[in-house]
Amino acid sequence: MRVGLFIPCYIDQFYPEVGIATFELLKKLGYDVEPPMGATCCGQPMANSGFEQEAKEVYHHFVNDFAEFDVVVMPSGSCTMHVRKHYDIIPQTDEVKHVRTKTFDLVEFLLDQGLAQLPKVHFPKKVALHTGCHSLRGLKVGKASELYGPPESALEKVLNHVTGIEFVPLSRADECCGFGGTFAIAEEAVSVKMGQDKMKDVVGSGADVLVSNDMSCLMHLDGIVKRQKQKVKLMHIAEILNLGKK
Amino acid sequence: MQDKHPEKAATFIKDEARVDWHDAALWHVRSKRDVAVDDVPEWEFLRGMASEIKAHTLSKLDSYLLDFESNAKKNGVTVHWAKDGEEHNQIVLSILQKNKATKVVKSKSMLTEECELNPFLEAEGIEVIDTDLGERIIQLRNEPPSHIVLPAIHIKKEEVGDLFRKELNAEPGNNDPTYLTHQARAHLRKKFLKCDAAITGVNFGIAETGEVIVCTNEGNADMGVHLAKVQIHSMGLEKMIPRKKDLGVFIRLLARSATGQPITIYTSHHRKPIEGTEKHIILVDNGRSDRLAMPDYSNALKCIRCGACMNTCPIYRRSGGHSYHFTIPGPIGSILAPTVDTTAYSDLPFASTLCGSCEDVCPVKIDIPHQLYKWRQDIAEAGNLSSSKRRSMRLTAKILRNEKSYKRFGKLMNVGLKYAPKFLLNNKFNKWSIGRDLPKAPKQSFKSWYKKNHGK
Questions:
Q1: What is the ipTM of this complex?
Q2: Weakly modelled stretches of chain A, pLDDT under 50
Q3: pLDDT attached to residue B409
Q4: What pLDDT does residue B168 have?
Q5: Residues of B with Cβ-Cβ distance to A133 under 8 angstroms
Q6: Could B446 and A19 be called an inter-chain contact, meaning their C-beta atoms sit closer than 8 Å?
Q7: Which of A25, A97, A197, B187 has its Cα between 20 and 30 A from that of B98?
Q8: Chain A residues touching residue B440 (CB < 8 angstroms)
Q9: Which residue of A has its CA nearest to B412?
Q10: What pLDDT does residue B415 have?
Q11: Which residues 320-379 of chain B have a CB within 8 Å of chain A?
Q12: What does the pLDDT read at residue B417?
């Protein structure tokens, strides 16, 4: 299977280690992986700010880059949701339809492909989990606590294949972290307060590490952790899964 | 210029102890809701059913409204139609004047808030007393409600104690909620006994029978309606449901979603005037039929005003209802407000991270996050965003539409992050850095790493 790996702009620029981990993990799993060098962004930052029309050319650029692959995988539920849901405003050519239906968040992809192949990893840490809202509620990867029945964490399902982890529960397991793209700037006060509250919950849980499938949430929380000089480590799920050998 | 949501929220957040208390109080309500929901295995089915009943009703609203009118008339009720808030208020006034009514008790009604009925009647020399405890508290404070179900949720019991001491002669320093409630009760009893007319809102209107359903926990609507010679029920056009047997679906959803109760304490069916009294129903449009004609936004009319989207909203909980500067706050308010005035409320669709929890809790499945997203597009298109924002977004699109410009920009940003002194990046002009550090610039981007290690 030819996998087109999309590394979102902010991961490319700020968190290359997450891109590297995702790439290496997919390689270890035996996929023919390639991150097209022309890829830039899914267009969400513009569209969420109200400039969907301006983002159209970015959508076309994305589709051109990825139409040749069997599937598109990215370490971000938010970008995945954007491609799948919001690329409906450009003409629905075969390429566009293909890219929209074959784009997956990494966790979603792993669950879909089966977890038995995952590299063996031992990670003896106390781990708290944060599923990005666009994965949880947008893509329905897992089940949010407000729906009927017990909540489900897709991250936990995947990380159950890692030995040594002790999961520590948060008091509000799926409360939004407060990033929200340009919301983080436009509504700075609320955004920061939400991030502080999320980290207070994480620190209170006794976790050594907070793991997420969405690096944009972690970028925002990383800013809070550094400013507050907290000791919790933030990791993308790919970084843990990639610790194992092939 | 008047403060918008970001500024109002920032002011609210300054008092950290208070915002934490506000957040916890509402989270408590959300948690109670979750427990109540888990008692109903067919919960998700009920939500779907309620959503479809509303969709059906809205698709034939005109004929259901006419059925309702004709059945209500058969019950001996006078039915009025008001195209907007002003006409609604005029109708209320004329009914009151005809009956020489000067003392009015009113039970909770977001519609009369929307129409600004109280100040209108007061200017005409009519006393209007809100009889819901929370509503009475904010009325005495001369404030609008901050929540549609819990109008005084932003006020602490100590503040209620002080208020009642000043306004109702309650004893100083006694902030016991039971004591304070008894004070309010004694005060309101006198008002009920002396009232000339009672006004209520309406939760549901049943086309088949012409009756209206009013749900309260305090029984205050019933007390007014049963005592007053003149009863007025003000009802938005969208409150219609076709048949009495549809009601059960909504009753099971409403209180569980709102407060986590299986049902409100009183679910009262008002059908006919008591002998010797008169009953009026005012059907109010006030922009509702305009909304019905907007394909992207019409299903917001399904709303049954349970407030669940507010309780679950992480932004609402941390910014307070007044930060939305609209009658209906929170996520649902943020999609309703721009239909009323797109420019004045252009900030509200942006007061969201689009986390989607509001849609998950909504008992009638309104696609609130999608409508927020859609409003952002419409607001930008209508030119309601600053030109600097438009310029920066156009520039971003230009950078991102091709590889070369993206690479140039990436390098520039990286160099900036690496070499700029901390005080330059972490200053008050950079909003990111007020409460957060910026990410550290890595040695190389992912793409440079890839080219070096795996490049062909």
A1: 0.96
A2: none
A3: 65
A4: 96
A5: 353-357
A6: yes
A7: B187
A8: 14
A9: A13
A10: 56
A11: 350-357, 359-361, 373, 376-377, 379
A12: 55
10 Å CB burial of residue A169 (0-12, 13-18, 19+) is exposed
Residue of B436, B176, B269 whose CA lies nearest to A224: B436
Cα three-residue angle B319-B321-B327, rounded to 5 degrees: 145
**DSSP helix, strand, coil percent of chain B (3-state; round to 5):** 55, 10, 35
CA distances in angstroms from B364 to B43, B177, B250, B309, listed in the order given: 11, 34, 9, 11
**Which positions ≥6 away from B284 have C-beta within 8 Å?**
B82, B84, B85, B88, B111, B115, B234, B235, B236, B237
Span A117-241: which CATH code? 3.40.50
Question: Which of B215, B191, B257, B196 has its CA nearest to residue B46?
Answer: B257
Number of inter-chain CB pairs under 8 A, A vs B: 219
CB A134 within 8 A of CB A174: no
Distance to chain A for B418, nearest Cα, Å: 11
Cα gap B372→B347, rounded to integer Å: 11
Give the H or E element holding residue B164: helix B157-168
Residue B30 with chain A: CB contacts under 8 Å: 146
Beta carbons of B435 and A227 less than 8 Å apart: yes
In chain B, residues with a C-beta closer than 8 Å to the C-beta of A187 are: 5-6, 9, 315, 350-351
Q: Is B125 left (phi over 0), alpha (psi -120 to 50) or beta?
A: left
Can you tell me which residue has the tokens 């009113």? B106
The neighbouring-strand residues paired with B130 are B106
Contact B43 A148 (CB under 8 A): yes
What are the extents of the domains in chain A?
A: 2-112, 117-241
What's the one-letter identity of residue A234? L
What is the model's pLDDT at position B431?
A: 86
Q: Do A46 and B431 touch (CB under 8 A)?
A: no
Looking up tokens 């981007």 gives B445
> In this structure, are residues B401 and A40 in contact, taking their beta carbons and an 8 Å threshold?
yes
H or E element in which residue B428 lies: none
Token pair belonging to B100: 């020489």
- CA B84 to CA B423: how far, in whole Å? 54
Contacts of B32 in chain A (CB under 8 A): none
Q: List per-block mean pLDDT (blocks of 10 residues) for chain B, which spans 456 residues.
A: 92 97 98 97 98 98 98 98 98 98 94 97 97 96 96 96 96 95 96 96 98 96 95 98 98 98 96 96 97 96 98 98 97 96 96 98 98 96 77 72 69 56 54 89 93 87
Which amino acid does the sequence have at A7? I
**Domains of chain B by start residue, with CATH:** 40-155+196-289 (3.40.50.10420), 387-454 (no CATH)
Cβ of B390 within 8 Å of Cβ of A43? The answer is no
